[in-house]
Amino acid sequence: MNKNRIGKLSPDKMENLIGNSFGKCSNDVIVGPGAGLDAAVLKLSDGRVMAIAEDPIFPAPGLPLETFGWFTVHIGASDVAVTGIKPQFMTYTLLLPPSFSEEDTKTIIKSISKTAEELGITIVGGHTGWYGAVTVPTVGGVSVWGFADSDKWISPGGARDGDSILMTKGPSIEASALLAILKQAKLKGRISDENIKNLIGRSNEITVVKDALLAFETGEVNAMHDATEGGVIGGLWEMYRSSGIPVFADFDRVDIPDDIYSISKELNFNPWEAISEGTLLAAVKPGKEKKVMELLKANGIESWILGRFDSSIKKNTVRQRKLDTELICPEEDPFWKLFFGE
Fold first, then answer.
1. Which one of 187, 265, 307, 341 is least enclosed by Cβ atoms within 10 Å?
2. Are 65 and 131 contained in the same domain?
3. Short-list 87, 134, 142, CA closest to 111
4. Considering the domain boundaries, does residue 332 fall inside one?
5. pLDDT-derived band at 79, boundaries 50, 70, 90
């Protein structure tokens, strides 16, 4: 293994690392840990189900503390929302460097509370402390969960043969926004001021809570996934892995937004492979694409039909520049080395 690796391992390597180290088995686990499974789903004794997810949150240098607090809630809540279950409760652990002020800490805490209130989420516990091992404010973990009737949710692995693959917003939303903030001085004069402004503004798009709950509301989606590490390519591969149905994706159908294209070219990364929290991938029932897309559009969310789940093809396939190649899960997300300055 690469000793200098940054970010998560590929799903195959992760499964080899973790194995079956999940503690005691329980018949109450409907959806457990696995590639492409954003949240666990548990069976409750009253007949309902509970979806629960866990995430760490890292700050980007130059990112406003209020935005860091906003990320904390939305990134955790997004992983629950893709089940169609509304996020309702959360806990978080805020780890701080010894020199970090109580005033700035209060700014983060108030932002987390305000964002949670906006999403209808109640904070029920957590931990806050200052430690020598911590060099930047870090949310060591945010746990978000919600409840629903047993027939009012979908599994991230529930895609069916023939379903269309819908994508919201575009690729590389998170990577492009955070790198624009982090490398704003370097990008000045290399890409347009307008593109830099648009990219920084995309920090408000790093969420799929609204996307996912709206799509689920139509009743026409069988599965949803948040395209985080590995970007859209990683997300598609994970949806294949969790559903067992090969995917065909036609990237030629999507015009990458100019601001995202410009930063990916300048910093030399593939926007389809870079972390893209904020991009929802959804398996939509055949013939129901327009219904889902129209509701998203009415709420200010752009979307595209990217491809389909197709059991007739032998391997995952992506079309780009009119060439069909095998879609393979990225070994390493290009975002992390850029983020940490390598």
1. 341
2. yes
3. 142
4. yes
5. very high
